[in-house]
Backbone:
C-alpha cells in the first residue's frame, strides 16, 4: 500500500501522457469520449461502489460546474433495481478499479439493455466492463496489489477531470484559451504531488502515533472535499478497522456533533482555491466551524493549505497541502488521508495490504 501511494505521481503522469498530446487532447484517443459526451442530451448517471463511487461524487460537481451537464451518482447496487422512467436521454458511466465488480457490472448491463450510451472507467483495459461498454476510458494506474484503493482512486479522479474538461469543451462552456490554462496546470500536477509526498509521509507518521488509541473519527468536508472526507473515512475503516464516518461539514451540528469528544477526533478538510470565490466562501464556513469546534474542545486534525496560519491556530494537528485549483485539490488532499489510514493500521498491527473480510474485486453481491 505504501509503495502504491508513492507511485501516484508516476501513474498520474502516465495518464496525462496517454490522453494529452502537445497542447491539447489526443484527437484519435479521445474521439470516442467526445462521441459519448455528445450523446448526453439529458443527464449523466454514474454507477459505482466504494471508493469508485466517491470518485463519482467528485465528478458530479466537476461536470456540473464546468459544463452544466446534470449528473446523478448512484450506488451500483441500487441502480440495478431502479426504474428507468425518469432517465430521458441519459448516458451512463460505470467506474470500477477491476472492471469486474458484480453490482457495477450488473448496472452496466442494465444500462445497455435500456439503450443508454455507456462508458466504463476501469484500471484494467481488457476487463469485462471495458469490453461491454460502448466506450472504454481506462486509467493508467497499473496493477494495484493492495486491497485499499490508492493510486487507482487518484487515477479515476484524473480521468473524470479530463472527461469533465472534454464535456465543457463540447458544450462551449469554456474558451480554448481557458482550456489551455487548465491543461497546462494539469501537466504540472505529477511533479507537484511528487514534491510533497515525502513531507506528507513524515508528517502523517508522526501524527498517526498521536491518535493510536483513538477508535472513532468523523471526517468533514464541503463540496468536492465532502467526497474526499468519505474516502478518507472508508480508508480508515478498511485499513485500520476503526470506526469512521464522512459528513458534509455543514451537517455536523445536525446530530453528529453529539459524538464529538476526547475519544472521537475530527478530521477536517480545510483547503481552498483562493482564485475561486465559491471555494473561498466554503473555506470560510469551514474555518468558522473549526473555530466553534476548537472552542468546544474538539481534537482536530486538519488538512489545510501550506502556510495557513488561521487553520493551524485552531487545529490540534495539521497536514499542509500546496494550494491549487479546486478541482485538483481532491487528488492532492486524499493522499495524506491514505497515509493516515496506512500508519494507523501499522500502529494497530494490521496487514494493511490484506484487510480481513475484503477482496480486491467484489465478484458477488
Residues:
Amino acid at each position: 500500500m505504501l509503495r502504491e501511494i508513492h507511485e501516484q505521481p508516476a501513474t498520474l503522469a502516465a495518464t496525462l501522457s496517454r490522453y494529452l498530446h502537445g497542447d491539447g487532447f489526443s484527437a484519435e484517443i479521445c474521439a470516442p469520449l467526445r462521441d459519448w459526451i455528445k450523446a448526453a442530451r439529458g443527464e449523466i448517471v454514474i454507477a459505482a461502489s466504494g471508493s469508485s463511487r466517491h470518485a463519482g461524487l467528485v465528478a458530479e460537481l466537476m461536470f456540473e460546474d464546468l459544463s452544466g451537464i446534470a449528473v446523478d451518482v448512484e450506488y451500483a447496487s441500487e441502480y440495478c433495481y431502479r426504474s428507468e422512467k425518469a432517465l430521458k436521454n441519459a448516458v451512463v458511466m460505470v467506474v470500477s478499479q477491476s472492471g469486474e465488480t458484480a453490482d457495477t457490472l450488473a448496472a452496466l448491463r442494465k444500462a445497455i439493455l435500456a439503450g443508454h450510451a455507456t462508458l466504463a472507467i476501469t484500471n484494467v483495459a481488457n476487463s469485462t466492463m471495458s469490453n461491454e461498454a460502448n466506450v472504454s476510458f481506462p486509467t493508467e494506474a497499473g496493477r494495484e496489489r493492495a486491497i485499499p484503493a490508492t493510486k487507482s482512486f487518484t487515477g479515476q479522479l484524473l480521468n473524470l477531470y479530463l472527461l469533465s474538461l472534454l464535456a465543457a469543451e463540447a458544450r462551449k462552456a469554456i474558451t480554448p484559451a481557458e482550456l489551455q490554462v487548465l491543461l497546462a496546470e494539469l501537466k504540472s500536477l505529477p511533479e507537484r504531488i511528487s514534491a510533497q509526498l515525502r513531507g506528507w509521509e513524515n508528517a502523517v507518521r508522526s501524527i498517526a502515533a498521536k491518535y493510536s488509541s483513538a477508535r472513532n473519527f468523523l471526517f468533514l468536508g464541503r463540496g468536492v472535499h465532502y467526497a474526499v472526507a468519505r474516502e478518507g473515512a472508508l480508508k480508515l475503516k478498511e485499513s485500520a478497522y476503526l470506526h469512521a464516518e464522512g459528513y458534509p461539514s455543514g451537517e455536523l451540528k445536525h446530530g453528529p456533533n453529539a459524538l464529538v469528544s476526547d475519544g472521537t477526533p475530527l478530521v477536517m478538510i480545510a483547503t481552498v482555491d483562493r482564485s475561486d470565490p465559491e471555494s473561498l466562501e466554503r473555506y470560510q464556513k469551514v474555518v468558522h466551524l473549526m473555530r466553534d469546534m476548537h472552542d468546544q474542545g474538539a481534537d482536530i486534525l486538519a488538512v489545510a493549505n501550506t502556510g495557513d496560519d488561521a487553520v493551524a491556530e485552531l487545529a490540534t494537528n495539521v497536514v499542509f497541502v500546496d494550494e491549487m485549483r479546486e478541482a485538483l485539490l481532491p487528488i492532492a488532499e486524499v493522499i495524506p488521508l491514505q497515509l493516515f489510514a496506512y500508519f494507523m493500521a501499522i500502529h494497530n498491527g494490521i496487514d494493511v495490504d490484506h484487510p480481513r473480510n475484503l477482496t480486491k474485486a467484489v465478484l458477488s453481491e
The chain has a mean pLDDT of 95. The radius of gyration is 20 Å.
